[in-house]
Amino acid sequence: MWSLNSLAICAASILICATGGVWSQDFGYEGRHGPEHWGEEYARCSGKHQSPINIDLVNAVEKHFPKLELFNFHVEPKGIHMSNNGHTVLVKMTFDEDRIPTVRGGPLAERSPVGYQFEQFHFHWGENDTIGSEDLIDNHAYPAELHVVLRNLEYPDFASALDKDHGIAVMAFFFQVSRTSSDGYKKFTDLLPQIDRKGKSVNMSNPLPLGEYVSNSLLSYFSYTGSLTTPPCSEEVTWIDFTSPIDITEKELNAFRLLTANDDHLKNNFRPIQPLNDRILYKNYIDTPITKMGSIPFVNAENSAASWRSWHSLALVLLPCFCLVTLLSVSAVSGF
User: Fold this and answer.
1) Residues with catalytic function
2) Are 241 and 214 in contact (CB under 8 A)?
3) Crossing angle of helices 183-190 and 250-257, rounded to 10°
4) What is the per-residue pLDDT for 289?
5) How is 99-147 classified by DSSP, letter by letter?
6) What domain count does the chain have?
7) How many Å apart are CA 260 and CA 250, to the nearest integer?
8) Mean pLDDT over residues 255-261, rounded?
């Protein structure tokens, strides 16, 4: 029979191993647990189709995607749960079953005919206004970025969709510092001091719809196939990066920067950009409407030439008539 000391030593060993196992599976944004070491614990983080990327405007290929359709984005949720998980501010919303926000069309049309359903949204930000976003546009970073995570409705839950091709999609929105912002972010950031440390959470009273947290303009966007930007870095994720940024004030942005994780400020929680490799970056082609003061429409040269010939022939017929009318008018005047 084991002695009491033996049991204590065994228990301590198990605790150390368990703690070490949990710690080895954790990740961070600097030091030995930073992005450059993620691949040591999570093999997929060393994949060839990773996110984020630099969106190179010159090399983006225009593509005429189907209309992007958003459903229930203006439905008020039953509740909003905000938590500090040590990596980001994670937000989950609860809805009645038939009122969950969903997205169809656009780049998702080729992935799933039934569309994608909202799962959660979270944020990435920097310690100052020059850094923070994960994707870059022409090597330009925004101070923060919002990720709205969606699940392909062909799969019953997030876990089963995670390892499947095109099982997950992310709608990405950049933030820009402004003097004003939407009411949604004022109320949202007012609650951040209540989750100032890792593991803390809060429920929002009088929750606002998902549409209050995204950009108002959804026509202009880029799309590519990438990965999750945090471990396990699962690939075959459809990314939709919208070009119209969300306004946020400096005070509201600083509320994110005051959050802590592991006794240090939770800041610069963005992954460095990854090589595009053999992927194609697409830009949604937008049909420009013709208005009175709008752009000049393209002209069909053949039809234009035919039209000119018709008018030329008509002019040859009408010119003698015009001359005759003029002469008669002159004669009539001379008779007075």
Assistant:
1) 87
2) no
3) 30
4) 57
5) G--EEESGGGGGT-SS-EEEEEEEEEE-SSTT---SSEETTBPPSEEEE
6) 1
7) 18
8) 96
